[in-house]
Amino acid sequence: MMTDDRHNDDALDLASLELGEIDLVEADLDAETIETEQWIERYVLDQLSDPQARRFEAYAAMHPEMLDQIDAARDLHQGLKRVAGEEIGRVGMIAGLAWIWRRAGLAASALLLVALLPALLLFTENRRLNEALATDLASPPTVVLDVMRDAAATQRIRVDNDWLTLAVEVDDAVQRVDVVLSRGSGEQVWSQNAIEPNPWGVVQVMARADSLPPGDYVLSVTEGTTELGPFLFVIDP
Amino acid sequence: MERIRAGDAAAESELVERHGRAVRMVLAQMMRGRPEADDLFQETFRRAIEKLRAGELRQPEKLPAFMVAIARNLAIALFRLRSRRRTDEDSEVVADTAVAPADQLQQMMGDEKAVLVRRLLGELRNDRDRQLLFRFYIAEEDKESICASLGLSALHFNRVLYRARQRYRELYEQAVG
């Protein structure tokens, strides 16, 4: 009923809308420029300025085949968003990723991108939902581990949640991995064989925070006899 | 245009038939699924016909640009009106509350798109191309930075985006028979 009321209000609004001046821009684009400068995708993603969007719309209105291209790009964009959301939703990482994005202020680097996608998605598309999830859900923060061959570059993690998810991106071709989590001293904390990466090539290990007291750790990830790490990190007190 | 000026109802229908899709494209872009898009569509044609009857457009070749410009202006005017009326709320809140909840049909269409996109992703030759799509479409990274970090040429980048779009269309057309 509330929706109907609002809808009626809108109907009243429309007749009183000030149309303003109709700016008949020149449709002075060409197909090659549109492709090489990604005008179709940038339009769909709202990355064109208002004058650019007007130019592009004037061109598209005169080239019906362009309308097909725009529809395809829009569907592709929506489908990709859905796929990314479903994938991460399935593994229950949404709030954790929101946390890492917000807390660490991470830019979209190549290594982190796959795991951070939904966080970016939520952050840009529905900041309020994102904040609500991050605040209200007791989901674990996710730490995406980089390959650390230099001990000086070891990743430091402060755990202020009951759970922690460690995420490692692996090559697309990797089918299953064996994972061993050890203390810096060599003492094995946990291991699991034949873990399958998710469809985005991310292997995740979830651990209770109290099982990881402060100290040095090594996450060893191997595929058969091939070592994909090691991933070194320190849990800070 | 002459026929519309003369009050020919069939010409008005023809106007909708010829330019309806472009107007819908603009409103889809501007309104992002909000329910007022349908009303704005009607309003666009009402205003256009009014102006054409009044002889406000003299260059027939500009008619397509004229139609989409009216649609865009109306959408902008609606947003401005809303933000003036809800001065106690920030624009983000206005935008959020204005979005219609996804209905069953939208949900179903979304599911179908996801299925097609999953299929398309599965067909891509390598993970790099998949990453390219996600980084461009979802993370909205710019082309230069994606090309630099994935070691791609601009040409390859253009090709992947173009082919993804084409392939999506093919899959879509197959799906709808």
Descriptive report:
The complex is a heterodimer of chains A (237) and B (177). Chain A is 44% helix and 23% strand. Chain A has helices spanning 2-16, 31-36, 39-44, 50-62, 64-90, 94-104, 110-125, 127-136; strands at 142-145, 155-158, 163-169, 177-183, 188-195, 202-208, 215-223, 226-227, 231-236. In chain A, a hairpin with a 2-residue loop joins strand 7 and strand 8 (226-227). In chain A, helix 6 (94-104) crosses helix 7 (110-125) and helix 6 (94-104) crosses helix 8. Chain A is of the alpha+beta class. In chain A, strands 2, 4, 5, 7, 8 and 9 form a six-stranded mixed sheet that branches. In chain A, strands 1-3-6 form a three-stranded mixed sheet. Chain A is built from eight helices and nine strands. Chain B is mostly helical. Chain B has nine helices and no strands. In chain B, helix 2 (9-31) crosses helix 3 (36-53), helix 3 (36-53) packs across helix 4 (63-85) and helix 7 runs antiparallel to helix 8. The two termini of chain B are 37 Å apart. The relative contact order of chain B is 0.07. Chains A and B meet through helix 1, helix 3, helix 4, helix 5 and helix 7 of A and helix 2, helix 3, helix 4, helix 6 and helix 7 of B.
Short note summarizing the structure:
The complex is a heterodimer of chains A (237) and B (177). Chain A has eight helices and nine strands. Chain A has 237 residues and is of the alpha+beta class.
User: What class would the helix/strand composition of chain A place it in?
Assistant: alpha+beta
Query: Largest sheet of chain B, if any?
Result: none
Determine the strand fraction of chain B and express it as a percent band. Answer: under 5%
H/E topology pattern of chain A: HHHHHHHHEEEEEEEEE
Number of β-strand runs of chain B: 0
Ranges of chain A where pLDDT stays below 50 over 5 or more residues in a row are: 1-11, 88-142, 147-152
Task: Provide the gyration radius of chain A in Å.
Answer: 24 Å
